[in-house]
Amino acid sequence: MTSRSHAQELDRADPLGGARKRFDLPPGVVYLDGNSLGAAPAGVADALAGIHRQWRDHLIKGWTDDGWLTAPLRVGDRIGRLIGAAPGQTVTGDSTSVQWFNALTTAARLRPDRRIVLADTDAFPTDRYLTDSVARLLGLEVRAVPAGRFGAALAELGERVAVVAASPVDFRTGERLDLAEVTAAAHAAGAVTVWDLCHAAGALDISVDAAGVDLAVGCSYKFLSGGPGAPAYVYVAERHRAATDQPLTGWLSHAAPFDMAAGYRPAADMSRFRIGAPHMLSLTALDAALDAFDGLSMADVQAKNLALGAFFIACADAHLAGRGFDLVTPREGHRRGSQVTLSHPRAAALMDGLAAHGVIGDVRPPALLRFGFNSLYVSYTDIHRAVMALRLLTEPADA
Ligand SMILES: *Cc1c(COP(=O)(O)O)cnc(C)c1O
After folding, report:
1. Per-residue pLDDT tens digits for 287-321
2. Protein residues with CB under 6 Å of any ligand 1 atom
3. Nearest CA to ligand 1 atom 4
4. What CATH number corresponds to the domain at position 205?
5. Is the pTM of this model over 0.85?
């Protein structure tokens, strides 16, 4: 079940196999780092030429005639479909870091009588740094615990928790946290949630609406393949919007930006969460990149992602036993995101060695080898090749 011919059989039966054509992958490369920077979708080059032509030929009129001004709302809704958000609640802009700052501050302002932010000890560094900064700014206290202990922490801190800040997938271990369950626990304590969807959007079948999520942010250059530095996005549940007071009150979040009024009046719609002029060049690349998801259901995408992970684990069990590897990611499909992390004392050297075999993953200190699976362009044969390369690289000296 872990042979190359079995991998080929799985590829032949794969309903998503055809999606690989929607990407421009370098020939011969096994790309297992799409959870860090997604591969280039095939339509991006033409789209970039197109926005250049609009700019060159239409000049300032592009803002209106080519729809640049409203593009963040339109593309936001396209991402909304992939994260289970009904239209009108998602908008693109800036980086995840900026959006995290904005969303967390907004969330804390929804609970002005509470002082605690419950955060994940193992959160992505930018989230941790910014959470601490927001706390300093607003006079809040950050209580960081491992995500698995959120329930106990909420029971202990109860009505003092303003915000629960979390991610559905641990970026190091790939462990999954249940969006609906944590959100419900936060709500039971009267807190609001801010989720970082960077490692979930485009990979997992989530629904922020169905889970009752309050606010969420994410980047679009990982599983969404929007390109390096592609604009991030923010989701704000419609039920909260009228009460929100986001801190970065740029002119494009104004109810009537082109009135150039002296006083601030927030937009009633999702423009309320815009800041400044949209990054049209990178937003156009992202818009084209999202075409790769056209006609695909996130249920199918998640199913293949988890199957690729299961196949990776099975191949590692069969071919890497006794070679110093430990599986860091949970084995059970429902507890995993779309990545598998192995630890090995020579992690950095092994990743260099893999590159020589045309296999790209990444290393997270101190000893973690991280492999991400984007089922739109990763095949079972790719997985098999990656594990067999690791086997070659760890061949015992006397063999
Ligand atoms: C990649 C990632 C980020 C990146 O933030 P940027 O501001 O877009 O650089 C933030 N949070 C998480 C969880 C990430 O995985």
Report:
1. 999 999 999 999 999 999 999 999 999 999 999 99
2. 95-97, 124, 126-127, 167, 171, 196, 198-199, 219, 232
3. 96
4. 3.40.640.10
5. yes
